[in-house]
Design a protein that fits this description.
Helix content: 25-40%
Distance between the termini: 7 Å
Structural class: alpha/beta
Number of helices: 8
Strand content: 15-25%
Number of strands: 10
Strand order of the largest sheet: 1-2-4-6-7-8-9-10
Shape: globular
Largest sheet: 8 strands, parallel, barrel
Radius of gyration: 18 Å
Order of helices and strands: HEHEEHEEHEHEHEHEHE
Length: about 290
Amino acid sequence: MLMKHIVKTSSAIAALTVAAAAFDVSCNSNYVSYYGQNSARNQQSLGEYCKDATEDVIVLAFMNGFPNILLNFANACETTFEGSSLLHCPDMAKDIKYCQSQGKAVILSMGGASGAYGFSGDSDAIAFADTVWNMFFKGKADQRPFDDAVLDGIDLDIEGGSGAGYPEFINQLRTHYASDPSRKYYIAAAPQCPFPDVYLSSTLNSAWFDMVYVQFYNNYCGLNAYPGWFNFDEWDNWVKTKSINKDVKVYIGAPGSPSAASSGYIDGKQLASIYHNPSTFKRHLQNYSRGA
């Protein structure tokens, strides 16, 4: 289930008065949620969550197999194309369009804590970027899991395998993005909080990212270690000194419920206290919660 801690600044509250305002990646009060793993066993349809004005970005989790594509959205989609193991999700497709009509960005997360994924090299990654564009964005493919729905971006939640090919994958996908100036597309990442990240460090330093959803849980540097080992300052310094995009937004990643992570869950009151503490954060603060 997509679970959420609703943590808003005064500017976010003001923004809610604007009906179906389009997602603005530069805003410092955006709220992101992961959807698709039904961790609390009561996951509703995607469209139900997009009725919540608090949501700015919905991350569909996960494409947990690639380049041989495997999708898993738990009870949100359980049908496949005839003669194939590839999920076909027409109901989710309708909800994606509805979410976008409500000003939400909908992006697809690649990877996750379990699965079989990774690239054999640069050419493999470049070819897969073409496949992703054709199957989930403005390209054409015989089988499109979300039919004619067009996603707003990709998230890399890489927690295993090799780091090979990801910069090239991003660069090729951004080339496709540039071919469609009619809309904005995004690249996100979800590294673990220990810095530098084991799997994504070189990619984070060499490729363009719009958003970075740091997972402050399941590690010594999680929200439950605040203030001692909590290391948002290291990620803030990465933005200033290493990131290709100096305007990249770093988000606080928090489990949406105790069942959404092995460790690191804190309740909404604690999270709000950390979020609003002026001594904790600098200019790149955002928030997301995770129910995957």
